[in-house]
Fold:
Amino acid sequence: MRLASWIEIGRMDELARLDTPVHRLDARAKVITSIAFIVAVMSFPRYEISALTPFFLYPLVLIFLGRIPPGCIMQKALMAAPFALAIGIFNPFFDRAPAIVIGSLVISGGWLSFASIILRFLLTVGTALALVACTGMYRLAEGLERICLPRIFVVQLLFLYRYLFVVANEGSRMMRSLELRTCGPMRLSYHVYGSLVGHLLLRSMARAERIYCAMVARGFSGEIKVMRKTSFQPADWVFLLGWLAFFVAARR
Amino acid sequence: MSHHIVEARDIGFIYPDKTEALKGVSFRIMHGESVAIIGANGSGKSTLLLHLNGCLLPTRGEVRIGETPLTRQTVVAGRRAVGMVFQDPDDQLFMPTVFEDVAFGPVNAGLPSDEVERCVTLALERVGMVHLKDRPPYRLSAGEKRAITIATVLAMAPNILVMDEPSSNLDPRGRRRLIGLLKSFEHTRIIATHDLELVVEVCSRVIVLDDGRVVADGPALDILDNESLMIAHGLECPSSLRLKT
Structure:
């Protein structure tokens, strides 16, 4: 159960059920604003650091107005950190031309671009997580479909999110049975680990098929349907246009 | 909508790993009948049930729901008539809250939201789980999950109710509620179960499966009382009948 509790599966769904001004906004407004945010952040040149700082305002506003615990977002962002580190880690080695001097410390361009990558990672991943936490995956998927993202991508995204639960669940159950049958410290051979991973894959696939069968048996046909279709309110327009204006101004 | 006959014509099914799970199963269930499918573990009960709503398509033979054979093209229409409750509740509860899970069927059917609310509340009341409607399903006990999966199917108002081990993991009160619910359901009921006492109370007809074949098909009390038949196929007579003498 440790793995599942560490990932806090289900926490995002819980947070999405809160009732705050941010939660009540139309999913489409939040999605379009977040996409514009990510485009603006990624459009900066590679050595840019100081110009990125005003952009922290958007995710922080989502987090604090949406009453989302910042620690929850940070913990999940850190899980994706190895990817950002892998992308940026070679920059300081390949790009050694000095860029700025602070006192007697010379900082090369490689370190600047590495720091820029880390900052952009925090901004974009933090925003994406905050978006999911204040909208809920299902409403988010419905919003994406309504802004004309191809249905196949939306359904894939939804199933990816849902089956993350399945795999984590199966994995924690296998770990528990392993612990219960191990006396003393767990020292497993590669053969056993290989079998465990293979079983995890097969069990998850089998379970995913059964869940799909259950969804289809209750009328699911690929189209995401929700109980109450939302429509754009004045607050949604204010949110969308206000933030877009801010991003344009901060980008200059 | 009425007179939905469920017919199996010589169904054979071989799994991809070459296991022959069904070796020629035939029966005809009329509208309103209450039928139990019993058999030892591995006799093919769950496989047979999965054929009744098109989750599996037979490798030979055919299944007919109301005179329409179930094929890849007709399964969607067939599933509107057949409500299926699977063996593992975790396979059927996939929405963030119980309410949304029970509403999944009606919402997909395109019902307006006040009608959906009505269906969901009614279905949850019938299984006695209204107080759990805002909880996430993965946090509930096995019995509560079982009751809610039944509600998810009831909310769609099916004509034919197919259930795989519905009373497993239910506490005595929940089981009694299930029996009451099944008795009050007027349409066709097809139940695969090991709970022979439930069969005695709810079902008028029993089909016995052994090794993928039908070995007996007739009135429930006649078959359940036939000790040699039951023991020959890995079962035994229910206590309520054995102790009657």
Residues 6-89+154-242 of chain B form a domain with the Rossmann fold fold (CATH 3.40.50.300).
